[in-house]
């Protein structure tokens, strides 16, 4: 197994992870989570169901993508364990497999407990953000694993940097509250932006609706932080990829604002999530890049 082929596999896994995140968002936004019923991994009791209705097609497609991701990640794990003696790469492969298994288990629990479609339980309110944060962790690990193949290092400790820790906390909080906001938009839709804003601050609204204000507040904090981080990495640390952070942060902000003003559009929602995934991935990549450059400078 050559390094180039392994890079291709890891790139496939990263792409599948992002596509799976977007597919999951489509499942949630369309209320299609119950399309395959309360059966897993089968769909309405069949491994290959009759896809006669749209919810079943959407949910089954998401499950297939997640299944392929699981297989690709397992293949990466086996190849690295067999062909590599690099302890850092092996550790990354172990973590990849761990998080993709956790992803499958969370998905299974959500289906079997019927925390889907228009379920409004507290359990779903907890499960949804955990599900998205776990997939964000998987994206980060795929980027890190790819970088290890490109940037040979003897140790990884960039994650101990205080700035990196703050960034991760902000990213995860924004992702978690974003998933809660998306769930609220599905369960308690409004007829207009003004009505939705009034619902956010009304004492008579559901707690899920009132929690929506957390996402834009935290998102603003993250965007401001990323602007400063991007500038620092680009100017002070001379990391070219950091320039994309400022650009992507601007795109994510713009799409998010337009989506809220237009009272939530599924295309804009998926686009917003896609560019947020890219922003997160490029942030991880930039930190791996700076870590590698600093190691070279000390040699």
Descriptive keywords:
299 residues; mainly alpha; disordered C terminus
Give the SSE layout.
Layout: H1 3-30, H2 54-83, H3 87-112, H4 122-150, H5 162-187, H6 193-200, H7 207-210, H8 214-236, H9 243-261, H10 266-297
Helix pairs in contact: 1-2, 1-4, 1-5, 1-10, 2-3, 3-4, 4-5, 4-10, 5-8, 8-9, 9-10
Short description:
With 299 residues, the chain is mainly α.
Oligomerization state of this entry? Answer: single chain
Report how far the terminal alpha carbons are from each other.
Answer: 30 Å
Number of beta strands: 0
Instruction: Please state the overall shape, judged from the principal axes of the Cα atoms.
Output: globular
Structural class: mainly alpha
Q: With helices defined by DSSP (H or I, 4 residues minimum), what is the helix count? A: 10
Q: How much β-strand is present in the residues?
A: under 5%
Mean pLDDT: 86
Radius of gyration using CA atoms only: 20 Å
Helix content: over 70%
How would you describe this structure to a colleague?
- The chain is mainly α and 299 residues long.
- The chain has helices spanning 3-30, 54-83, 87-112, 122-150, 162-187, 193-200, 207-210, 214-236, 243-261, 266-297.
- Helix 4 packs across helix 5 (162-187).
- The longest helix has 32 residues, at 266-297.
- The two termini are 30 Å apart.
């Amino acid at each position: 197994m050559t390094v180039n082929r392994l890079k291709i596999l890891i790139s496939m896994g990263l792409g599948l992870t992002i596509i799976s995140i977007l597919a999951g968002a489509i499942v949630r936004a369309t209320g299609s989570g119950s399309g395959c019923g309360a059966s897993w991994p089968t769909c309405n009791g069949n491994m290959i169901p009759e896809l006669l209705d749209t919810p079943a097609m959407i949910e089954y497609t998401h499950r297939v993508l997640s299944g392929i991701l699981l297989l690709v990640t397992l293949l990466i794990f086996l190849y690295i364990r067999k062909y590599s003696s690099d302890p850092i790469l092996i550790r990354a492969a172990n973590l990849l497999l761990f998080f993709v298994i956790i992803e499958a288990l969370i998905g299974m629990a959500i289906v079997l407990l019927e925390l889907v479609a228009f379920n409004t339980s507290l359990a779903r309110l907890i499960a949804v953000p955990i599900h998205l944060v776990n997939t964000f962790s998987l994206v980060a690990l795929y980027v890190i694993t790819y970088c290890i193949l490109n940037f040979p290092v003897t140790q990884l400790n960039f994650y101990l940097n205080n700035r990196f820790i703050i960034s991760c906390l902000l990213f995860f909080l924004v992702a978690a509250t974003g998933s809660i906001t998306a769930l609220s938009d599905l369960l308690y839709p409004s007829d207009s932006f003004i009505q939705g804003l009034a619902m956010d601050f009304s004492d008579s609204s559901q707690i899920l609706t009132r929690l929506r204000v957390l996402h834009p507040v935290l998102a603003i904090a993250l965007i401001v932080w990323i602007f400063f981080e991007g500038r620092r990495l680009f100017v002070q640390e001379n990391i070219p990829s950091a320039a994309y952070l400022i650009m992507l942060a601007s795109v994510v902000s713009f799409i998010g604002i337009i989506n809220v003003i237009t009272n939530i559009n599924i295309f804009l929602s998926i686009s917003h999530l896609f560019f947020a995934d890219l922003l997160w991935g490029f942030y991880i990549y930039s930190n791996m890049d700076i870590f590698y450059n600093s190691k070279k400078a000390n040699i």
